[in-house]
Amino acid sequence: xxxxxxxxxxxxxxxxxxxxxxxxxxxxxxxxxxxxxxxxxxxxxxxxxxxxxxxxxxxxxxxxxxxxxxxxxxxxxxxxxxxxxxxxxxxxxxxxxxxxxxxxxxxxxxxxxxxxxxxxxxxxxxxxxxxxxxxxxxxxxxxxxxxxxxxxxxxxxxxxxxxxxxxx
Length: 168
Prior knowledge:
The protein has 168 residues and is mainly α. It has seven helices and no strands.
């Protein structure tokens, strides 16, 4: 993809990647907080990865198509994206980055929650920082923004799982 094409689909890459890492890890963090088995955590992570990745890609496609159809109806010139490509970029970004939190648990089942959280934070920081390549955002700020959002969501999931396991 050229820089121009990357710029056009940047939203899809960031949105899919962030959501892939965060939702997959959040499901797994909640299951970890609830003290579920490693096997269950992996199954939940993979099931979320597949279903949510598909849903994100299709949802993005349908949203872009709807926006283009609306703009055409009211005669507004619409942006030059291809809805199928937008959905595909979101899906691929979600799947690739969303698989990252699953890898250490599959290959190193004894890995700690904190270890996987550090990996997730690093991935989010890199993803956020890369935005600076084609935007005006400072690389450090971009990395920290995305890391903060993902870590907070992950901690909410972990402690929610822990609390719900004691209440139910």
